[in-house]
Write a structure and sequence with these properties.
globular
Length: 367
C-alpha cells in the first residue's frame, strides 16, 4: 500500500488540532482475508485492509474523517474472477489497480433542532445511508459477500462530494434521509484522484440522488425509498440511445434474542441497468461458539444484457464468527457458493460456478 502526499496532508491537518484539544474519538480496524476456490483458473489470495474513523465534536456538530486502505489484488486471484465473494477487496486502488491509502470521507455534520435533524456536507459515502441493515451492512464484522453489504440493484457511486439530510423519527413519523451527490466517486474517475473528483464539469457526469424512509421498532425495522443517477447510460438494446438509471428498494429487519433476519429487495431501470432486480435474505444467530450466519442472494440480469452463457446470479454464504482477544477481534471461517456466469477474466470459460472457502481475521481498537 502507498499513501499520496495530498492524502497525508489532509490526514495530518485534520488530526492535529483536535488531538491537541483532546476531543477526538477514533476507531481503527485491521482486516485480513484468505480465500481459495475450486476453480482451476483461480489462485488462492490474501487481501488486507485498514479502516480509521476519527470524530471531532464541536459546539454545532461533528467532523468525520475516514481513512481507508487496501492491498493490491492478485490479477489471478479469487476476488478478480468472482468479485462478490470479498466485499473488502478492491475498494481502494490506484488507476493501475495497485493498493493504496486514501481519505475516503471528510465531512461536517450540522446538528439542527436539538439533534432531531442533521445536515452532512463534504466527501461522503452514499451507500452508507439508504439500504442499511442490522446484520447485513458490514463486510468486516458480518457477511463478507458484497451481495449482503449493499443492494446490487442500486447503482451507488463511490465516495463522492455531496450532502446528507436526516430527520429522526418522531412518534408515528418515520426517519427520513435525503442524499444528493455527484454521480462519480473517487474510484469511478479515470485517474481515481481528488483532482478528477473536483472536475464537476467533466463530460458525462451527473447527480446521484436518493431518498429513504425508516420505521424502527425494538424487534422490527422497515426501510423503503427510491434513487436515480442522471448521468448518461447506454440503452442495452439500442446503443444510439441513452437514459438515466433509477429504481426503488426495500429493507426488512427482525431481531429477537439471539436471532436476526434481514431481507433486501430492489428494482432498477432494466433498459440500462445490468441488475434489474435483486433479492437477498440473511440470517444470523448468536451461539456459545460464536455468531453463525447464512445468506442467500439472487441478482436478476436485465433481458437486454443477457446472452449465451449470461444468466441470473446466485450468492450464498455461511460463516461462523469466533471472538478472540476478549471480543476486540474475531476469526471467521466461511464457505460461499457463487454462480456468476458471463464474468470471466481469462476469456476461456471453464466453470460458471465456484465454491469459495476462506477465513477472515479482524481486530479493532477505539478510544
Amino acid at each position: 500500500m502507498r499513501i499520496s502526499s495530498h492524502n497525508a496532508t489532509a490526514l495530518l491537518t485534520f488530526l492535529a488540532v483536535p488531538a491537541l484539544a483532546g476531543d477526538i474519538a477514533w476507531e481503527a480496524g485491521i482486516t485480513a482475508v484468505v480465500q481459495d476456490a475450486d476453480d482451476s483458473r483461480v489462485e488462492s489470495e490474501i487481501t488486507a485492509s485498514l479502516d480509521l474513523f476519527a470524530r471531532w465534536s464541536t459546539g454545532s456538530g461533528e467532523w468525520l474523517l475516514y481513512v481507508e486502505g487496501s492491498t493490491s489484488p492478485n490479477p489471478d486471484g479469487v476476488s478478480n474472477f468472482y468479485p462478490t465473494v470479498n466485499g473488502d477487496a478492491r475498494s481502494v486502488l490506484t488507476r493501475n489497480d495497485s493498493g493504496t491509502v486514501q481519505v475516503s470521507e471528510l465531512n461536517y455534520t450540522f446538528s439542527l433542532q436539538g439533534g432531531r435533524r442533521s445536515l452532512m456536507l463534504g466527501l461522503i459515502d452514499p451507500s452508507a445511508w439508504l439500504d442499511r441493515g442490522r446484520i447485513a451492512n458490514d463486510e468486516n464484522r458480518h457477511f463478507l459477500n458484497g451481495s449482503f453489504v449493499n443492494n446490487a440493484a442500486i447503482e451507488f457511486p463511490d465516495y463522492s462530494l455531496g450532502a446528507v439530510y436526516r430527520r429522526l423519527a418522531n412518534g408515528r413519523h418515520p426517519e427520513l434521509t435525503l442524499i444528493v451527490s455527484g454521480s462519480d466517486g473517487i474510484q469511478d474517475t479515470p485517474d481515481r484522484s481528488y483532482q478528477d473528483l473536483l472536475d464537476l464539469t467533466d463530460q458525462g457526469r451527473g447527480v446521484f440522488a436518493g431518498f429513504g424512509a425508516s420505521w424502527l421498532r425494538e424487534q422490527f425495522s422497515w426501510r423503503a425509498g427510491a434513487w436515480l443517477r442522471s448521468d448518461d447510460h447506454v440503452v442495452a438494446e439500442d446503443e444510439t440511445r441513452t437514459d438515466i438509471n433509477y429504481g426503488v428498494y426495500g429493507v426488512f429487519g427482525w431481531q429477537s434474542g439471539p436471532d436476526a433476519i434481514n431481507v433486501r429487495a430492489g428494482l432498477a431501470n432494466a433498459d440500462v441497468s445490468i441488475a434489474s432486480e435483486f433479492l437477498a435474505i440473511a440470517y444470523e444467530r448468536r451461539t456459545r461458539a460464536g455468531r453463525v450466519g447464512l445468506g442467500v442472494a439472487r441478482t436478476f440480469i436485465s433481458d437486454g444484457f443477457r446472452g449465451e452463457g449470461v444468466d441470473h446470479a446466485w450468492d450464498v454464504e455461511a460463516f461462523l464468527r469466533i471472538p478472540v482477544f476478549g471480543g476486540n477481534g474475531h476469526l471467521t471461517p466461511s464457505l460461499q457458493y457463487v454462480r456468476n456466469p458471463g464474468f470471466d477474466a481469462t476469456g476461456d470459460t471453464v466453470s460458471s460456478t465456484a465454491l469459495v472457502a476462506g477465513i477472515r481475521f479482524h481486530l479493532s481498537f477505539e478510544r
